[in-house]
Design brief:
The chain is of the alpha+beta class. It contains four helices and five strands; from the N terminus they run ααααβββββ. The chain is about 30% helix and about 25% strand.
Length: about 160
Amino acid sequence: PPAGGGPRYEIPALPPDRLRLSGAASSLDDLLRTVETSLAEGDTTRLLELMVTAGEYERILYPAFPAAHPPINAGFETLWLLHVTDAIPGLRKVLRDYGGRRVRILHVRFEKPDQDFVNFILDETSAVDLEVDGERRDGVRLFGSVFHVGNQWKVLSYPDD
C-alpha cells in the first residue's frame, strides 16, 4: 500500500491527447463565473457542457475511482448510471432554484480539496456562499464536486438534495 493511505491500485498516466475536456473552463474562477452567467441566462446547454461527459468519465475519471477496483469492481456503465441519475435531476433543481436570477458566487469550500488521482485533481463536495438577487445565502450546494486536468475545469455533478 502507498504511504499516506492513498489508493491501493495503480492509476496509469494518460497521454495529453486523452486528457482533453470539451467545454471546460480555464480556471476555478472562470468555472464559477460561467456558472453564474449560465444560471442568470437559464442556459441549460452551457451548464451541461460544464459537466463531465460520459466519454470523459469513462476515459479519465472511472479508471481512478476506487469503486472500479477490488473489492467492488463496478463496471463503467454502473458507475456512470449512478452518477448521471443524480446529476441530471440536480441540474434541474439548480435551474429551478436559481435559473433566471442574478447569482454571485462569493466563496466556495470543498470538504475534500485537491485529491490527486494522477490524471486529474478532484475537489469534492462543495459548499458555496452566494448572493441571489442581492440576498446572501451561505453553505449552498450549487454544484457537487469539481475536477480539473491542468487548466481545464469541469463540474463533476449537480447535487439532487
